[in-house]
Write a structure and sequence with these properties.
Layout (H helix, E strand, L loop, with lengths): L21 H27 L7 H24 L7 H4 L3 H32 L13 H25 L2 H28 L1 H17 L4 H16 L6 H10 L6 H15 L1 H13 L5 H17 L2 H18 L4 H15 L6 H10 L3 H26 L13 H26 L5 H19 L5 H35 L1 H10 L4 H19 L6
């Protein structure tokens, strides 16, 4: 593996050169994603068409899902797709940045080394628990955590050995070891602090790790593990069970399926067909292309649920024409970014699905509410776009003939029907978010193949691997965040915070204002999902 420019982590989004040993992992990840889609679709058809529910499908999908999460996390580690905060690290001098990156790598390795033994022990303990319909030990499911941790550790160690100078690596190991020894000797005092110890580890240490560029999932994991080891008498093995619980919710299966759906829309051109119709209808008016961009994000997000796929579909189709009309590139990117943030609340949204799973809120209710919120944000952004485009020159831009617009609309109709199918099915309770996502994927594959040019097998394989990697990165965050939430709940801090917020002067308005301020601060530092 060649040495990378900044020593440890490549530039954001840069994928490391492929090594032969990662290929089998990608194949397994692709097979698991494809298997989950086929199993869920088969379950829906069996239940709704033949009235013969297959009870074993849920357990099979649950087992495949946690393996996807951990193998996908290993692939994401290799491809540099774990979410991390690089803002502060990029401000450092090159020499200091390389050392901080090396220390971040050592922190990741330390967490994985500490996680593997309790993960193996947890798998052994699950041997006596039999899965209800498959009649096999639960060990076959939870062993994924130990295997995934070992694979990620292998990626980290191989990368460190091949890319980080030995002296710098040894220095980083020494710094992390000294910090661990300091925590160990201070543990009696930290345990006596109780809530103070929790704040020290889950706020102070996590914030420090975030600033150092440690991937977010590992920041949460290291914070919880350090708190359990040095701030309490609770065995660190508890974190494995909490991670298992955080990644085991079947509702979350819709996350990788909707990510796959976004990839299909982008690859088949279904999303572009929607954009072409909107551009033909309103692209000729002042701020028209900005309207098209925002409306396209709104509609396409109502299909895929993946913000990355949405932006990848919209930007290449619209940016050249917007540049020709005199729009500044910085303003175009800003509009795309704020529009994507607006689209995060358009159902089906991965953020809403995760929120419903974590908070125990009705996902159907979140979908209905999210649509209204997104509409308000859309109208606000439209007003801002119109004001920004007050000096835009559109004299030479003409609307296409209505016959052309009609032909483009007919071509886009199968794609335009998809968001309405998804929302109506979930909103009316006909199907769950997971089932609808599977139906949407099958629909998009069939329609895309028949009407929009089809997909080559190599392209489908690439989409499956990308889905596994992105899903692994997201689900690992959920697993470690669930462990952190458990630690906070057990410490009693939730009761203190609840009492503080309840006693805020101003009632509900003050609570909403405080929530907005907190999320603005978190949103400036983190991706929406971990925030």
């Amino acid at each position: 593996m060649p040495v990378l420019e900044d020593g440890l982590f490549p530039a954001e989004g840069e994928i490391r050169p492929k090594s032969s040993w990662i290929v089998p992992l990608e194949i397994v990840g692709a097979i698991l994603i494809g298997g989950i889609v086929l199993l869920l679709f088969g379950g829906v058809v069996s239940r709704y068409v033949f009235s013969m529910p297959l009870d074993w499908i849920d357990e099979t999908v649950s087992m495949a899902f946690i393996w996807v999460a951990m193998i996908g996390a290993a692939i994401a580690m290799y491809r540099n797709e774990h979410l991390r905060l690089a803002t502060f690290v990029d401000m450092l001098s090159p020499r200091t940045r390389e050392f901080v990156n090396a220390a971040a790598l050592v922190c990741v390795a330390a967490f994985l080394i500490a996680l593997i033994p309790p993960a193996i022990e947890h798998a052994k303990e699950e041997w006596v628990i039999e899965m209800q319909t498959l009649h096999i030990p639960n060990t076959f499911r939870v062993m994924a955590i130990a295997v995934g941790a070992f694979l990620m550790l292998a990626v980290v160690v191989m990368h460190a050995v091949k890319t980080v100078p030995r002296t710098r690596l040894m220095g980083a190991v020494a710094v992390v070891a000294i910090a661990a020894m300091a925590f160990y000797f201070l543990s009696p005092s930290l345990r006596g602090m109780k809530v103070g110890g929790l704040v020290f580890f889950l706020a102070g240490l996590v914030a420090l790790l975030l600033a150092a560029g440690v991937p977010i999932a590992f920041c949460f994991g290291l914070g919880v593990m350090s708190y359990l080891a040095f701030g309490t008498g609770v065995p660190i093995g508890v974190i494995v069970g909490r991670m298992d619980e955080g990644m085991a919710n079947l509702v979350l299966v819709s996350v990788p399926v909707f990510v796959l759906l976004g990839c299909i829309l982008d690859a088949t051109g279904m999303g572009k067909a929607i954009i072409d119709v909107l551009a033909a209808l309103i692209g000729h008016i002042k701020a028209g292309m900005s309207y098209v961009l925002l409306t396209s994000l709104f509609i396409v997000s109502g299909i895929s649920g993946s913000k990355v796929s949405d932006m990848a579909t919209v930007a290449p189709a619209l940016f050249p024409e917007m540049t020709r009309r005199g729009n500044k590139r910085s303003e175009m990117v800003a509009l795309l970014g704020t529009g994507a943030a607006m689209a995060d609340t358009v159902p089906p949204s991965i953020v809403l699905i995760v929120l419903g799973s974590v908070a125990g809120v009705s996902i159907a209710g979140l979908f209905q509410t999210g649509f209204v919120v997104a509409m308000v944000l859309l109208l606000t952004l439209v007003a801002v776009a119109r004001w920004k485009a007050r000096n835009e020159q559109t004299g030479n831009v003409k609307r296409p003939p209505w016959k052309t617009i009609g032909r483009m609309t007919v071509i886009a109709m199968p794609a335009l029907a998809l968001p309405f199918l998804i929302r109506s099915a979930v909103g009316e309770g006909v199907a769950t978010a997971t089932e609808v996502s599977t139906l949407a994927v099958v629909y998009a594959l069939i329609v895309g193949h028949v009407l929009y040019g089809g997909l080559r097998a190599k392209k489908v394989y690439g989409m499956l691997v990308e889905t596994a990697a992105l899903s692994g990165a997201v689900l690992l965050i959920l697993g470690t965040a669930s462990a952190m939430a458990w630690a906070i709940t057990q410490s009693g801090v939730v009761n203190v915070m609840s009492q503080f917020l309840t006693n805020l002067p101003g009632g509900a308005a003050a609570f909403m204002a405080a929530s907005i301020v907190i999320f603005v601060i978190l949103g400036c530092l983190l991706e929406g999902l971990p925030a």
